[in-house]
Amino acid sequence: MSKFLILTGSSGGIGQSISETYSKDGYTVLELDKINKTQSNKNAIYLKVDLLKYSKDHDYRSKIKKHIKSFIPEDIKKFVIINNAAVQILNPLSRISNSDWDNTLSVNLIAPFFLIQDFEEELKKYKGHIVNISSIHSRLTKTNFLCYASSKAAIDSMTRSLAIELSKFGVKVNAVSPAAIKTEMLKKGFTGRLNKLNQLESCHPAKEIGNPDDLATFIKSITDQVSNFMTGSIFDFNGGIGGRLNDPE
Predict the structure, then answer these.
(1) Which residues pair with 45 in a beta bridge?
(2) pTM of this prediction?
(3) Cα torsion at 195, 38, 55, 166 (round to 10°)?
(4) Is 197 part of a structural domain of the chain?
(5) Cβ–Cβ < 8 Å for 41, 5
(6) In the predicted model, what is the mean pLDDT of the chain?
């Protein structure tokens, strides 16, 4: 019997770690991403998918759905969907445009919804798992993150609502809310500003930034659960920073 994972956003640092972690445990990993420049898991199946188009174009979505189904084995003991892909557009209030909202909500919220809807039958049949990757920004954010933070708050709400609807069928629906994760993208953002990266680490009570492999292992521990009771939860992965005030000591 096979274990099967559908993973969006596979080309980034977190996506690569998730893909490799599941692949090592014998999963067939179907990676969905718009780009494939940094794909490192040679054991995975890669399918180029434009999630913005997937969220809007019914014919395109039907085509992708059919393509994905062609990879799904008939005999499955684990069926998992991880919605990891996200768009992060940073703009102040005065510069946020219709396209900023459209792109953010389409990729971060609507595409995950339709992916779950398209494979509702398989999720119910195999009593599958859904993990939506949220963000600490869903509750604790800062300037310029308005669109992104709003989309992640919405994915938290969708997770809870889907759990109410799907858990009676044995489908487990949860979300993971990470703080800063030390991906190559994050480190490049601090090029020439090592002091700022060190400062970011020191802000976390754990005195470090999250590791993508550790995050992937944590995510997999959720889908390793057999019990139906762990559903509808938003799990923090934030090094303790979610409980820290920024007031002066």
Answers:
(1) 30
(2) 0.95
(3) -80
(4) no
(5) no
(6) 94
Q: How many domains does the chain have?
A: 1
Residue type, 213: D
For residue 191, give both structure tokens.
């090029």
Here the CATH number for the domain that contains residue 38 is 3.40.50.720
Sign of CA dihedral 53, 56, 59, 62: positive
Summarize pLDDT for 41-61 with one digit per residue, the tens: 888 999 999 999 999 999 999
- 33, β-bridge pairs: 48
Query: And the tokens for 219?
Result: 């995510």
DSSP the chain: -EEEEEEE--SSHHHHHHHHHHHHTTEEEEEEES--TT---TTSEEEE--HHHHHH-HHHHHHHHHHHHTTS-SSEEEEEEEE---------GGG--HHHHHHHHIIIIIHHHHHHHHTHHHHHHTT-EEEEE--GGGTS--TT-HHHHHHHHHHHHHHHHHHHHHGGGT-EEEEEEE--B--HHHHHTTTT-HHHHHHHHHHSTTSSPBPHHHHHHHHHHHHT---SSS-S-EEEESTTGGG---S--
- The side-by-side arrangement of strands in the sheet containing 27-33 is 45-48, 27-33, 2-8, 76-83, 129-133, 172-178, 234-237
Q: Which of 1, 9, 73 is nearest to 216 (CA)?
A: 9
Whether 153 is in a domain gets the answer yes
What is the span of the domain harbouring residue 81? 2-181+211-240
**Percent of all residues in the chain with a pLDDT value above 90, rounded to a whole number:** 84
Cα 88 to Cα 114: distance, rounded to the nearest angstrom:
20
How confident is the model over 67-80, as pLDDT tens digits? Answer: 999 999 989 999 99
